Amino acid sequence: MSSIIARRRRPAAGYAAVAGGLVVVGVLYGALSGGGASAASGQQNTDIAQGKSLFNASCSSCHGLGAQGTPQAPSLIGAGAAAVDFQMSTGRMPAKESGAENDRKPTDFTQQQIYDIAGYIQSLGGGPTVPTSSQVGTLGADTAVGEELYNGNCSACHGFAGAGGALTYGKSAPSLNASTPTQIYEAMLTGPEAMPVFGDGTITPKEKRDIVAYVIDTRNEANPGGFSLGRIGPITEGAVAWLAGLGFLVVIAMWLTAKRRDPVVEMPGDDQGDAQ
After folding, report:
1. What is the pLDDT of residues 131-160, one digit of tens each?
2. Which CATH number does the domain 131-222 belong to among 1.10.760.10, 3.90.170.10, 3.90.1150.10, 3.30.160.100?
3. pTM: predicted TM-score of the whole model, two decimal places
């Protein structure tokens, strides 16, 4: 018994106990938090070597073998996995021809292939990562706050209902009707094309989730007035009302001013006068 107590009093035993406790805490923390976030992101099986091979075959002709950029396309070093996932999952990249890089279209890659390429780009210089399902989930989000944030930061370009709109210099803000919650979140993180970057210091992750929830909620709203007119906004509704009203007034004016030929009434004795 005395020998056991003596061993407990040795400094090395205390250090070993502390180290063991830290190891246990680290394992528990990784199991409860880190592992869950990795699974939620869908990238726990990312194959960077496979991503590099796919990148060299499909993207390097424009972005360079090392993704350092060329005169035809910018550098992707530091762009992050979120930017790659947004551009490729929406079909904007790889662009089949010059000028088509802004067009949304079906993608030729599987989601896992996109994750592999995104993981390879992430390994080159970091950058925004693909958001987890908990970050983009709408459960518990505040759509009222999301509406205020959307109207203040997004509606000027994308329209009050996310239907898109024209910008200057021939550019346009795309419709959000086909965008997934992840793509909306990634767009705010990375600022594709003419869109500014809304970092977490500008719009917090919680506020981004509120905006995503508002966009999805607005998309599913019914049109109580009937035909939606593309949900572009009051300008379209006013133009249709003005044209319809003007057309109605023109028709009424034409009807009121139309010349009508009244039948000629012959008076008695006209035939005799004519005969004389």
Report:
1. 998 889 888 899 999 999 999 999 999 988
2. 1.10.760.10
3. 0.68
